[in-house]
TrEMBL record:
Gene Ontology BP annotations: negative regulation of cell division
Protein name per the record: Pilus assembly protein CpaE
Residue ranges of domain AAA in the record: 130-289
Bias (Basic residues) ranges: 388-398
Transmembrane segments: none
Length: 398
């Protein structure tokens, strides 16, 4: 919650997306001070543009004495040297023009970071959820079914789980779970630069299994309107709300997929026992090396591992030069469960497919949550921007 001093009843709604979260508006100095006293966990006060300068400075000085860790941001119709000087002398952290909502969002972020440090709570000690991205450069290997079942299993253990459908043109997470989403990821575009938990909540759809889903747009053409930036924001905000985020992906290295890689704690690389899938898995591993993705942050899962097609798991290992973490058997029960809209891990928890997904979750994903919050995803962006641009230039689907 943010405290706002403004005489305009519509001000809270006007600034809500930029500030992030709920806003409590007060129309007097005294009322705001009382709210601050009643909200020991609040670290931000925003003073609206219609509050006169002297009153704004008086409030800032009072806040500085009463709660030094609380940041005060001042909105003005126009800025000049005199206003800036007077505000800074009164302890205002930043002065922003009232119509610069992006500037306000940035100032809010900086102020909150500083307040947390002053209060003795370093950002890196805050426990956040973990992002797990499921990827294959070949279509038809079962990514969506695997992702939704993984999410459903994690939710069944009591974890708060979000499944994100990054196949933005042709995603099937919603239909696989027989959900009818009212909103989708396309609705986040208008919140780019100031997405908060409230904004994320407005686009997710709740499933009866307990998981939430951020579904792909209904119209394939909307995919081109979604910038990679908003996917990064979605995942960063989601980590504050969920224990685990499972990202389902298209079979291509798009800017959205690379944004997911940048924010992932674990990459699950899915393959099947056919030569095109194994070839693409080998190319994927080489591409991840090119991007600087740490080898310890990826696992290989062999789906339909017992299919009698003349290729064995040992042959796959020989090609990719990496061990297979989990082998998921083939079963007609899986497409049958998809047609019913019930993940097999819930419909038949003792089924061999369900047990394989449980093994992966318990061995590789649940331990991620046991960390104390200090282990951030290793930085991938910027290690080789030339390689990144080259990969994006491949474009399209394989």
């Amino acid at each position: 919650m943010t405290l706002l001093w403004d005489n305009d009843p519509a001000a809270a709604e006007r600034f809500s997306y930029a500030v992030g979260g709920d806003i409590t508006r007060q129309d007097s100095h005294a009322a705001l001070i009382r709210s601050l006293e009643d909200s020991p966990g609040e670290h931000l006060v925003v003073i609206g543009p219609d509050i006169d300068m002297q009153s704004a400075c008086d409030l800032s000085e009072a806040v500085r004495v009463q709660r030094a860790e609380v940041g005060v941001l001042l909105l003005r119709r126009r800025l000049d040297v005199a206003v800036l000087g007077q505000a800074l002398r009164a302890g205002v952290r930043e002065v922003i023009t009232a119509d610069d909502l992006t500037g306000l969002a940035d100032a809010v972020r900086r102020s909150r970071e500083l307040s947390l440090k002053m209060a003795g709570h370093q950002d890196h000690a805050v426990k956040e959820g973990k992002v797990v991205t499921v990827f294959s450069a070949k279509g038809g290997v079962g990514k969506t079914t695997f992702s939704t079942n993984l999410g459903a299993y994690l939710a069944s253990t009591g974890a708060k789980v979000l499944v994100v459908d990054l196949d933005l043109a042709f995603g099937d997470v919603g239909i696989s779970l027989q959900m009818l989403p009212q909103n989708s990821i396309i609705d986040l575009v208008q919140m780019a630069g100031h997405l908060d938990e409230k904004g994320l909540e407005s686009v997710v759809t709740h499933h009866e299994s307990g998981l939430d889903a951020a579904c792909a747009p209904a119209e394939p053409s909307d995919a081109d309107r979604i910038p990679g930036q908003i996917i990064g924001e979605l995942l960063k905000v989601g980590k504050r709300k969920y224990d685990f985020i499972v990202v389902d992906t298209p079979p291509a290295f798009t800017e959205h997929v690379l944004a997911a890689f940048d924010n992932s704690d674990l990459l699950i690389l899915l393959a099947t026992l056919d030569i095109p899938a194994v070839k693409n898995l080998r190319l994927t591993l080489d591409t991840l090396d090119l991007l600087g993705s740490p080898k310890e942050d990826r696992v290989v899962v062999l789906n339909r591992s017992d299919a009698k097609v003349g290729l064995r798991a040992e042959d796959v290992v020989a090609v990719i030069k990496q061990e297979i973490a989990v082998m998921v058997p083939n079963s007609q029960a899986v497409p049958a469960s998809v047609n019913r809209g019930v993940p097999i891990v819930l419909d038949e928890p003792k089924h061999a497919v369900s047990l394989a997904i449980k093994e992966l979750a318990e061995s590789f994903i649940k331990p991620l949550a046991a960390s104390d919050g200090r282990d951030e995803p290793k930085e991938r962006r910027g290690q080789d921007e030339h390689a990144r641009r080259r990969i994006l230039s491949w474009g399209g689907r394989r």
